[in-house]
């Protein structure tokens, strides 16, 4: 009997929420709702030879995480444009990876926490590269939940609710358009650096050929002069 009482007391102290809790934080804690909106970042980084850099980005459960990257230029020996990138869950498990000059990673977030993104320039032992990154997380359906809460609080009329729904859908479309625009900007940047590299290559190669042609002409002139000139200043033939 005493063992049963101890067990009931233990369950009372722990509470029903101590078993099987989801990783998603509780909503309405202290009267404040968790913000579940779109956030995205885009910037460029330079990876030295064999360098590895990692970034962390917070995401809630039931979101959509994405990572897009493109190698813009490579300098040094080897010039391998492949980039090894990985994304790990908050628990440290590998979620996705790519090994290419340009890649996209998309997956639904199964748990709440900081997701780790690592970029490794492992293919270039003596070369560095510049990489353009675009990553973030977005949520589908959070606008409707927020709209219902606003309707319950303020009793908005049908016209305003329709306008709000249209604005939310427009924001979603603008967000995805911005993602595609960033990828197009990556490709444009890579083409720009490739054009500059080819321009410098053509200029240096043309200058080197000009120097070789002038030097070869000068050496030919000296050789011909030695054929027709002697020490007694009489022609040999």
Task: Write the topology of this structure.
Layout: H1 2-14, E1 39-47, E2 52-59, E3 64-77, E4 83-88, E5 94-100, E6 102-108, E7 113-120, E8 126-138, H2 142-154, H3 158-228
Helix pairs in contact: 2-3
Pfam families: EMP24_GP25L
GO cellular component, one term: endoplasmic reticulum membrane
Transmembrane segments: 204-224
Structure, described:
The chain is of the alpha+beta class and 237 residues long. It has a domain at 32-192: Jelly Rolls. It has 3 helices and 8 strands. It has helices at 2-14, 142-154, 158-228; strands at residues 39-47, 52-59, 64-77, 83-88, 94-100, 102-108, 113-120, 126-138. It has a 4-stranded antiparallel β-sheet with strand order 1-8-3-6. Strand 4 (83-88) and strand 5 (94-100) form a beta hairpin. The model is unreliable at 10-34 (pLDDT under 50). Keywords: Endoplasmic reticulum, Membrane, Signal, Transmembrane, Transmembrane helix. One of its GO terms (cellular component) is endoplasmic reticulum membrane. It is found in: Endoplasmic reticulum membrane; Membrane.
